[in-house]
Amino acid sequence: MEKDCLFCKIANREMETQFLYETENAVVFRDIHPEAPVHLLIVPRKHIRSLNDASEEDRNILGELLLVAKEMAKKEGVNESGYRVVTNVEKGGGQMIFHLHLHLIGGWKR
Length: 110
Hints:
With 110 residues, the protein is an alpha+beta fold. It contains two helices and five strands.
């Protein structure tokens, strides 16, 4: 855990956040600034600064994050209509919180 990392604090229940799903390796909660009707954050409990900082040791966690995204899309009812899974990397890629996380975004009526 990184001392001042917002997502480390959330994942370790040091901040009040309603988890929609959690495992030993990951937590899922709603984005407080949603860009779509469904906008979830899928966050590993382990502090990995960004995708650039992931190592071979993190392979299982990274795979789990994608499988959690698939499961959450189904639970949120967007698996058939479609959704996006996005990770922003570094400032130039839009990363604002430097703890790796996936955005699951969907639910638009088109």
